[in-house]
């Protein structure tokens, strides 16, 4: 090593020591030493730069060597000088990177350093890590600036094809050696998760932090809390409130909150309500709130909700009474649900009209249900101009006046979803409306054949229908219209007598892209599981409910412990469950199985693996549709071929065990929203709209 090089190294060492000592003094006397400190750093950086360039470009190949002098005998002083040289290069590079001054100079320093032989592995790791992080940060900064330029250019010249192609390029390059979840954008995984039922999405929680974050965002976006006399449910709800209060990140994941109350007024209710008021402000991203059950939502709680969440977009009041005085103060509602089923409510029915008028510019979905002994009518509410802006309207379990029916006709141009389930004051007038081609309606009149014929004729002209349930409409009329509706993806039919020819006609009339099917047989010649082979053509079928009221004189409902002894109950229950498993084993696409009024999740376990896995993720995901007893919806361009392409799979091997996990019983008042059936098609198909006072024995809700 030449004399000039040694002098250069001494200058760098001197500047390094001087800067270190003066830097320590700057903490006490910054005004006196700051200028000297900066000068030493500048001298050091300039010296190191010249030294690196000289070693890289000015020396010959034989002299491009930073280490002990080859001509020397390799004594300790040579190694000491060599270590100091490499330490100076590394320290200077790291200092510049930490100061945010990464650039060509740092690249040159690190290039010389990394080409030096005999470096310690931990030092090389430190250098590569620092350079990699700095390069990535610089690349992201340049990419962000490039995106800004592209967007500015897009505003200046929107028709430029090169600009459009640049906008479609990925923002970050992905390399083949990276894990797959790094190469696939987060938006794609988020989209995949949206098609997976929450019951199966829970397995993502144990894969990695990447998948856990995605799963948590979907699982906790909608939360149902049951607050009542049951200690387990109540303690679970209180633990949830504690988590929300302590973890703001978790609280921000919750977009929909549904509280199910089932307790008497008293100290317990007052305590839980007070706790809820204290935690209510923590739900900073709350968009939908529902109060379900008894005690009902009252004025004080309405004020609390309005104080902390004045911009809530969806409000549901589902219970026995209508006591929500003051809900008209909410003026950003997109959806309003009011279902009252008793006669001593405190709120004036005019409160509803005031609420509709206050949300005339935003409200698009209205669901009304009232089985009230006190005089009531929707006529005043339907005088609001908000009715003209609705796209979804549901009148369930209520009396529908001729004025309301005529009002619906006048606003039918914007309606895409409509449910009328109740009693018409003038059935003949409704028949005339069905005969006219104005809107689609289905009603709950069971034995009115002229009305059913008008409905079937009307339905047959709606080629884009996605879901169909005509209630107790005779099968002969339903069979006439099914072949004409290729877009159906969710169907519920009730057949008086099931034989093989009827099942064959049903399956032939339905599209192979069917997603959900509910078949109710009043009488069957033989067990319905014997017809399961006919359903194999539906490769995307994820929800199947087979319900038979009787086979001959034998009822097919679940064996009851009140009429059987323990031994007989166990034997009959095993027989009953084995029949259900036979259906699940034959249809590999089914994730949710309804069996004689009970509902199960199908879990398939490979004997060669310890992991139970779902069978299908082929679920259509969109906004939740309102429950109804007889309801039709349009597909709106979302083709069922998506489910067909996702849901196809090979047949399971003989080593797969079937396990049916029973779903929790649905509350009548929550209208099925509390149970996840994989998507809106399944939830709509298994809805319950029968009032709580009229619950039918055995789960026959058709």
Automatic annotation (TrEMBL):
State the Gene3D superfamilies in the record. Answer: Ribonuclease Inhibitor (3.80.10.10)
| Composition skew (Low complexity), residue ranges | 624-651
Q: Where is this region: Disordered?
A: 609-663
Q: What is this protein called?
A: F-box domain-containing protein
